[in-house]
Design goal:
The protein has a single domain (2-166), classed as Nuclear Transport Factor 2, Chain: A. Helices cover 38% and strands 35% of the residues. It has four helices and eight strands.
Amino acid sequence: MLAMRVVHSLLLLLSLCMIAQSAWGVDHRSKNKAIVERYFHEVLDRKQFQLIRELYADDSVIEFPGRPIIKGPAAMERAVRDALSQASTFRTDILNLVAEGDLVVARIEHDARYEEGFMWRNRDGITPTRLPMTRAHWAAMTLFRIERGKIVEQWISRDELGVLLQNGAISVEPLR
């Protein structure tokens, strides 16, 4: 009888631990997704650049193909501020947001409007011309790694070809 009570108590305790662990995992993923949503909607869409220092770890690393690696929240704030400085409006639509462990993947679309046209900068920071583009729309995928409530790594992949086509930097002849 005593052995049966001990086994029953252990099974109950094990069940409660499993439920708690499952709930903590969901909560952890939900918190990570909320951090990413804040980045897109508050930092980018509302241009609240100061929040970058709250969302990114001091040793964070942001990788965007074809561009220098960004290290730390101060450098990220400068890069985002510079990238959005020409946009009169900027909107992010989060199409999918998936979290697993310490990773969050976002499939997004951005829409930007430029009242005075878009000033194209090459990799050296030289501005060759102001292009007549007043609106840009592009898709992107971004992978975030989050530790202790802060973004520590971010990998950005966006439709660069689409952006270049929209702003007239390149043209494509139709296939015949």
